[in-house]
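RETRY 2/3 - previous attempt timed out on the joint model. Re-submitting the same 644-residue input unchanged.
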Amino acid sequence: MNKKSFGSRLVAAPYIVWSAIFIVVPLIIMVYFAFTNDAGSFTLSNFAQIGKFKKAFGLSILYAVIATIITLLLSYPMAYYMTKFKIGHQRMIMMLIMLPMWMNFLIRTYSWITILANTGLINKFLSFLGIGPLQLINTPGAVILGMVYDFIPYMILPIYTAMSKIDNSLLEAASDLGSDSWSRIRRVIMPLSLPGVISGITMVFVPSVSTFYISQKLGGNKTLLIGDAIEYLFNTGPQYYNVASTLSLILMVLILISTLIMNKFGDDEEVVI
Amino acid sequence: MFKKILCITLGVMLTISLCGCGYEHFDINLESEYTEFAKEKGLVGTELNVYNWGEYISDGSEGCMDVNREFERLTGIKVNYTTFESNETMYSQLKNGGVSYDIVIPSDYMIARLISEDMLSKIDTSSLSNYKYIDKKYKGLFFDKKEQYTVPYNVGMVGIIYNSALIGEPQHSWNALWDEKYRNMSLNFNNPRDGFMTAQKLLGYSVNSTNKDEWNAACEKMKQGKDVLQSYVMDEIYGKLETGEAAIGPYYAGDYLVMLDVNPDLRFFYPKEGTNIFIDSVCIPKCVKNYDAALAYINFLLEPDIALANAEYIGYASPHTAVVNNPDYCYYQNEILYPKDEDMPDVEYYHDLPEDVRMHYENLWLDLKLY
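RETRY 2/3 succeeded.
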């Protein structure tokens, strides 16, 4: 590879400065806080405290895994059928998927409250039919639903991109060689769309596992996910920044490990993220 | 039957509409006094920075008096009005410096902290011609025993609000929030101090306990009740109680009166175990730049007509005797804001607690949420 010219370095400079200030420096600060006490001297005692956050970590991972699986099961067929439409219609569908993202995700989450609430739309409709009110809000199901709804575009789009890149002649060749439509999907489309699936899983799992607002609004502030715990600690006062940073650091390491494991499944170079 | 319902509805609507703002019959004879004072002291054209809670002054909306504009009109002093959301935000703003406020209106325990850290200027109450209107029982409270730093502005007490269309009248006890009958219908505060207060009162402890075992016991009590609760809320309680999403929850009496306007089925009581009371008072911080104007502003807030407009707009109880005894006041002899002596619950103010106790209960709150 050629040595980069001065010009191209100059073009990259603002980006490097930007990443240094807004990504690297905050990370260093976080690591620093994680390994010090509030007087600023080195300690590992923050890590001794994380035992009590076991349940929060466990729930966060569990909910995020379930949300990711549901999102995948919904998105994969969706992306597949999208590719069957005319190009113009595909763009249209893309836009419809993106449309909710034009709104702030806090507002989108909030609107689920009015749908799921005991006096909400669904329960009003059910009581109209004579079915007793169902407990929908303040349940784990509501939290997972919120995650699925908020993050599903991040799953559909990479899978769709991967699928639309599959050359149609490969599918024709498979048919010529005697594949029925199911084995075409299983032996051609699935392997070739795998990179999209891997990116999709990462892009849904990571925000789900670290989210903090959804569980507060749809879970009734009763179950604390790890993101909520970090938020509470940071909001309560500077004396909690250290433990909060330790939790953030552990969360980041967990995410990093799971991303690495996921990438092992795919062909390394083709993974979009 | 239909006529009966109509009558009741109209009656209710009438009562509600009575408590709008009564600006029309506002008669102001203060012109000369304030105008001359401002001229004499050379305050015309100067600025006054006021830092107050949000929604905490009659601001001219819905035909009410705009207190700040009136003050500007009379004195020619420009009022820069900014708001805060919590005592802690206000404290860190003042503490960090770089700001200059002439008036702040914090709550009791925060005033105690401000005084102990020498962040307030003294106020000579004898120079305030209207200080005499303040009810004796709100003078010289624990945070300002010698009446040197504060002028009371508003008083509030926590009680329990419930929806009489959804549930019968509960026993007048904090225990209602633990009652299995109201599973998934009850709410509690979503912050450690107020949340634990409900358990402390139920267990008969002081809200200012420095005994960590008592805080632990309160936390255990809260854990027992967590499964029954629908959710922990702060301002969301308005929507939840007004729509019937939840049936019972604790909040401030003044806020209950606001909710009652929206949902006439709501009822209110003070639990028999006693409750928390707060008082917000007007103070002059050390960073004051326009001291004379600040004094004039405080005296202006105490003018009977101004205090009345504020009391009607804010809806909390007023420590101002001329307001409380004014038959035209829309909450005149309101049993919830001004309970008769025999109905008055045992009340306790929050005090500023030592740092280690504060950290202890903040950690307990986390334990409760993680539980």
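The two ends of chain A are 23 Å apart (CA to CA). Closing ticket.
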